[in-house]
Every structure is written in C-alpha cells, then in structure tokens.
Amino acid sequence: MKAPRVLSRLQRGQAMAEYGVITAAFFGFTVMSWPFLVQLIRALNTYFQSIYYVIQSPIP
User: Fold this and answer.
1) Residue 1 carries which DSSP code?
2) Main-chain dihedrals φ then ψ at residue 2, nearest 5 degrees
C-alpha cells in the first residue's frame, strides 16, 4: 500500500527539480544575453524608423 504514495512523492519531487532547473536556465540565459537583446531592440528601432522615413518622404 505504501509503494504508490512513495512513487507519487518521487514523481512530484522530480517535477519540481526539473522545473527548478528549467527556470534557472531560463533566467541565466536572459541575464547572459541581455547586452545582445539591447542591441537587437536598438537595431529594430532603427529599422522601423527608416521604414517610416521612407513612407513619409515625398515622392520625387
């Protein structure tokens, strides 16, 4: 009778361990890639500004 309870506890523990590892990896990746993300946002901003400049420029 006690075997199913122990098994469910182990499964819950494994799920929490996996959740913790995935969350730590996600936050670690976010912190490590922050300078790249800032450059990417600046590049996208420049790209969209150039599109709006072309759209708003008068046709010769």
Assistant:
1) -
2) -80, -20
